[in-house]
Design brief:
An 8-stranded mixed beta sheet has the order 1-2-4-3-5-6-7-8, sandwiched between helices. The protein has 281 residues and is an alpha/beta fold. The protein is built from 11 helices and 8 strands. α2 packs across α3 and α5 packs across α6. The longest helix is centred in the C-terminal third of the chain and has 16 residues. 41% of the residues lie in helices and 17% in strands.
Amino acid sequence: MPELKRAGKPQLNYVIDDHTDPWKNAPYLLLQHGNGRSSRFWYSWVPYLSRFYKVVRPDARGLGASSADFDLEQGVTVEALVDDLTAICDDIGAPSVHFCGESMGGIMGLAFSAMHPERVRTLTLVSTPVYINDKAKESYSMGHASRIAAMQAMGREAWLKATNASTRFPPDADPGLVDWYSAEYAKGRPDVQLAYAKLVNSASAASFLPRIKAPVLGLYPTGGAITSAEQEKLLRENVRDLRIVHLPTPYHMVHYTHRAACASHLLHFMASHDGVACREA
């Protein structure tokens, strides 16, 4: 796992999965995880993608194997996260990348694409809200004053179990998947996850939308609690080159419940942009 060390900034770790033909110089695909998670949460997508693209999976600052040695009150901002993404692209020597982010990772992608349009070949959003609406805030608050208050009052494990059932996974989801998700999430530092929860609860990507030049693919649940029709309307009205695909579920974690479909849509979207084949005999 490469380590990116920078003076005065947290160390960043990332994983590269590359099973491409070495003579083809395949483009990079950056997979950015969502709120409180890590690069490990993309494990099931890698086999679909890494034969055709060099897959880069960063751990956002403070999460996974990346350092939490920074001011959590001031250091978890959209601007800081975009700066981290730029540093990773520089570290791997990629002038531009395909970018795919799930949930909050997609918000990071919207900001990165707007602030550094020359560095994004395509942008794919997976269950990415433009902002957290009142319905979602109420769902995550679980009867408390806010998501943050609920996490603090209930404890991380109880809050996670409740919100997994209410918004993330359908009732017939594989129990092993849900247990793995909870155990993997619990490896993160609670104080760091709270800092990210505060960011995502207040962030809005609306101002970035008109500045995005890259083609955008949206992979969204149907009638999801986190990604509403109102937000999709914002995307359609403000993103110049947009295609949205709806998966047949209202639950948020479509990149697990419909992983093959999502990965296939992403692969063909990128390959169409690059004009390359993404299927082998």
